[in-house]
Amino acid sequence: MSFQAYIDNIQSKTGKLPEDFKNEMTEKRLFNPDMKATELVNWLKAKYDLGHGHSMAIWAVFKANKWVNAK
Questions:
Q1: Are the C-beta atoms of residues 68 and 35 closer than 8 Å to each other?
Q2: Which terminus of the chain is less hemmed in, N or C, by CB atoms within 10 Å?
């Protein structure tokens, strides 16, 4: 499965794009630029029932957009 397919599947399942997840986390004061992948993954699994691979795809977008200070 391509990376874009992961993002498309996430959008189909949740109706949300990565930016929407960031905005929701920001509104709920869950977003932190210094957050770890585990925090995002656990939240996506609990709130949206996303699997690990799909959650990590969202994390990859967070990193690529420099929304998080991941090393």
A1: yes
A2: C
Give the model's pLDDT for residue 63.
97
Calculate the alpha carbon distances from 35 to 31, 38, 41 in Å. 7, 8, 11
Q: In the numeric block, which tokens belong to residue 3?
A: 């990376």
Report whether pLDDT(68) > 90: yes
d(CA 34, CA 70): 7
Best CA proximity match to 34, nearest among 67, 56, 61: 67
pTM of this structure? 0.92
Residue 59 CA to residue 39 CA, distance in Å, equals 10
